[in-house]
Amino acid sequence: MKSATIEDLAYYIQEAHKKNKPKPIIFLGAGASVTGGIPLAKEKKTNIRNILTKCWQEEIKL
Question: Which regions of the chain does DSSP assign to beta strands (E)?
C-alpha cells in the first residue's frame, strides 16, 4: 500500500476539482490520529480523571 504526504493529498484533491472529477477517497488507519498528535481516548480519559481528582482534592482542602 502506498502512503502519501499531506501535500500529495492536497494536490490530488485540487486536480480532481479542476478537472471536475470525483474527489479522491482517503483511507486512514486506526493510528493516523496518534501520529498526527491527537491523543487516544484512553489517554484523554486518564487526563480528565487526573484533572478532576486534583480539583476535588483542592476543593476538599478549602
Answer: none
Q: Where are the domains of the chain?
A: 6-61
- Alpha-helix residue ranges (DSSP H) falling in 1-62: 6-18, 32-35, 41-61
Quick: pLDDT tens for 15-38: 888 999 987 777 767 667 777 777
Cα 60 to the center of its chain, rounded Å? 36
What is the value of pTM for the model shown?
0.41
Q: Which sign does the torsion angle of CA 10, 11, 12, 18 carry?
A: positive
Q: Is 12 exposed, middle or buried (0-12, 13-18, 19+ CB in 10 A)?
A: middle
Q: Of 58, 60, 39, whose CA–CA distance to 48 is shortest?
A: 39
